[in-house]
Structures are given as C-alpha cells and as structure tokens.
Amino acid sequence: MSPNILRYWEKSISPFKPRRRRGRKLYTRQDLKRALIIKKLLEKGYTLKAASRMLRENDTEEVMPEVYSTMIREIKDFLKELKETVSEMKREIHESLDSRNNSGSY
Q1: Summary mean pLDDT of the chain
Q2: Spatial separation of the C-alpha atoms in residues 77 and 49, rounded to whole Å
Q3: How many domains, the chain?
Q4: What are 22-56's pLDDT values in tens digits?
Q5: Which domain CATH number covers 72?
Q6: Contact assessment for residue 36 and residue 67, using Cβ atoms and an 8 Å cutoff
C-alpha cells in the first residue's frame, strides 16, 4: 500500500493517527489492521465512506473474520495457480530430459 493512499485516508476519513518520531510516521498494529480492513472492503466494492463507517460502528475484531476469509480465499487461489505452474514446469523438465536421453546427447 503506497504512502499516498495512507495519507489520503488519514485526511479524508481519519481511520488512524500515526505518531511521529524524527519526521517519520509510526503506525500501530491496530492502525495496520484498520488499513488492511479498509483495503479489503474497498476491493469488495465498498466505498471509502462506507468502509470508514463500518470501522466506526464496529470494532476491528468484529470486521476481521470477513477480511480474513477473503484473504484466505486469495491465498488458496494463489497456491492453486502456483501448484499448477510448478506441475507444468516439472512436466516440461521431464519432457526435455526424456528427449535428451532418447536422442543420445548429454
């Protein structure tokens, strides 16, 4: 997530107020959870205003299961694609080795 997005959210909906140390913003674990929730809600089609309202009206821990289930689905999809890619690569390697062995060249 880019710093520009975080700055925009800070100004427009104030989901968190990072502390400053030596000119740098320091976000708490709770701030990061809130940012993740907002990001996932936006990806699900919520508006920024609706995501902000949801966080104001609910504790972050109440909203997290929905966010976690989305993340778990995304991870499962990624792992499935990765498994397919690895299987395809293994198949190509075996085919290449077989063709080398059959042609007699090493």
Answers
A1: 84
A2: 29
A3: 1
A4: 888 888 888 888 888 888 889 889 899 998 888 88
A5: 1.10.1660
A6: yes
